[in-house]
Design brief:
Largest sheet: 6 strands, mixed
Low-confidence stretches: none
Strand order of the largest sheet: 6-7-8-3-9-10
Number of helices: 7
CATH class: Alpha Beta
Number of domains: 1
Bound molecules: adenosine-5'-diphosphate, magnesium ion
Strand content: 25-35%
Mean pLDDT: 95
CATH architecture: 3-Layer(aba) Sandwich
CATH superfamily: P-loop containing nucleotide triphosphate hydrolases
Structural class: alpha/beta
Length: 225
């Protein structure tokens, strides 16, 4: 299988009062149909890397290709559309819209791309079934448990059938049993046409990926697990 995502010599430096060099010449290739886990201590640059891959942030230098297509990090308009269509993102917590129900949180992600509300709602209902939360359709995030919120976040991330799913410590704030369920749901999204990358502190989950990437000194070391 060809490489789908290629990062080349990525540097990322944050300049506030102090200059922090987070990524220092990171190069990595990712294939579709595989799951990659990203490990490393807090502050090692996992979120920074995922934010660059999701085109939310741009590197200080270096290049990135999706499907041989060179990303222009300065083309925000185009990148926003690319992200909405091709990338599903799941964060650790609190990333659902508080004033919207579970169903709305899911289908709004689809409306940002297409304007067919009926179709969006019907897709969202199917996804609620998939994540086993049909009975929570009209509940607000504050009325849901942490694990339920993450299931909704996964449903929302996959409604546009993205080619890339990025998850930043998706089970980081859950107890182990709930974390296992959420992780299983995330892993079940592995398909030949999808690339999944998740950051985690948990070696048990990290080792269930096809490849384990460890952040070391601003770069990554890859292990085939
Ligand atoms: P991780 O996700 O592995 O815990 P991060 O990618 O969040 O690590 O952060 C890596 C380093 O970059 C940390 O030292 C953090 O303080 C710094 N950092 C992250 N984002 C910013 C920012 N917007 N401004 C300044 N420093 C930042
Ligand atoms: Mg982080």
């Amino acid at each position: 299988m060809n490489n789908f995502l290629e990062l080349k010599n990525i540097h990322k430096t944050f300049k506030t009062e102090k200059t922090v060099k987070v990524l220092k010449g990171l190069s990595q290739k990712f294939k579709k149909g595989k799951i990659y886990s990203l490990m490393g201590p807090s502050g090692s640059g996992k979120s920074t890397l995922l934010n660059i891959i999701s085109l939310i942030d741009k590197p200080s230098s270096g290049s990135m290709k999706f499907d041989k297509f060179q990303i222009d990090f300065n083309n925000n308009g185009k990148n926003d559309i690319f992200r909405a269509a091709k990338i599903g993102i799941i964060y650790q917590q609190n990333n659902l819209l508080a004033d919207f129900t579970a169903l709305e949180n899911i289908y709004l992600a689809s409306l940002s791309l297409h304007n067919d509300k009926k179709l969006a709602i019907s897709k969202a209902k199917q996804l609620l079934k998939l994540v086993k939360l049909s009975n929570r359709s009209d509940h607000y995030p504050s009325q849901l448990s942490g694990g339920e919120c993450q299931r909704i976040a996964i449903a929302r991330a996959i409604i546009n059938d993205p080619e890339v799913i990025l998850a930043d410590e998706p089970t980081g704030s859950l107890d182990m049993n709930t974390a296992k369920d959420v992780f299983k749901l995330l892993s079940s999204q592995k398909k030949s046409n999808k690339l999944i990358i998740f950051a985690t502190h948990n070696r048990f989950f990290a080792k269930k990926a096809d490849y384990l990437l460890e952040m070391t000194n601003g770069s990554v070391k890859t292990t085939n697990v």
